[in-house]
Amino acid sequence: MKANYKPIETEINSLSDSETLSFIIGNKNNKCQSLLEKVDYSLKDLARLSISDLIKMGLTPREARAVVAAIELGRRKSVEEGMERKQIKRSQDIADIFVPLLCDLMHEEFHVLFLNRSNKIIKRMKVSQGGLSGTVTDVRIIFKEAINCLASAIIVCHNHPSGNLNPSDSDSKITQKIKEAGILMDIQLLDHIIVGGDEYFSYADNGLL
């Protein structure tokens, strides 16, 4: 007689958000339900919370780390899916990579894509991480890695946690600095993307390169 059971994958796919969270933190569904209520059942808002935020909301440090780690794995999966495209043809291709990674962060990060002559992605690198209003970017680090991986072109991207897509003076200055350094080293800066929430701003699309 065959056992009557559901495949584990099907069982997990059918769980509610609260039940899925309970698997992550250890089958404490009431605690998960309370947590989701506090973020108005928004997984996007949940993803913006830090470990300390989650602890203040009632999770233990271990539970909070588990939730943040699960969310981070989801971000990385989205980035990998975006990079499967390999060849960059337009700004939307860049946004497909970086918006899932940066859209719900509460701090700024600065990333670089290194490309070959066919504009296919060689690798991605996070150059710096800062606070709510900025991050320091060292141009030397960018071009050292570009030389190491024999890149012919680069694309840079950072986020504005405020959601404001307008480039700041410092954004434009670092863009120009990277562009000029690239000219000297024959490594073209193809675009600078600013991510704000689910939207983005492209320097190339707006004729600023």
State the order of secondary-structure elements, H for helix, E for strand: HHHHHHHEEHEHEE
Largest sheet: 5 strands, mixed
* Beginning-to-end CA distance, first to last residue: 69 Å
Overall average pLDDT: 86
- Number-wise, the strands total 5
Helix content: 40-55%
Rg to the nearest angstrom?
A: 20 Å
Strand order of the largest sheet: 2-1-3-4-5
How large a portion of the residues is in β-strands, by DSSP E?
Answer: 15-25%
What keywords describe this structure?
209 residues, alpha+beta, 5-stranded mixed sheet
Structure notes:
With 209 residues, the protein is an alpha+beta fold. It is 47% helix and 17% strand. The protein has helices spanning 8-13, 17-25, 29-38, 43-47, 51-56, 61-83, 91-102, 139-148, 169-185; strands spanning 109-115, 121-129, 153-159, 188-196, 199-202. It has a 5-stranded mixed beta sheet with strand order 2-1-3-4-5, with helices on both faces. α9 (169-185) links the parallel β3 and β4. α2 packs across α3 (29-38) and α6 runs antiparallel to α7. The longest helix is centred in the middle third of the chain and has 23 residues, at 61-83.
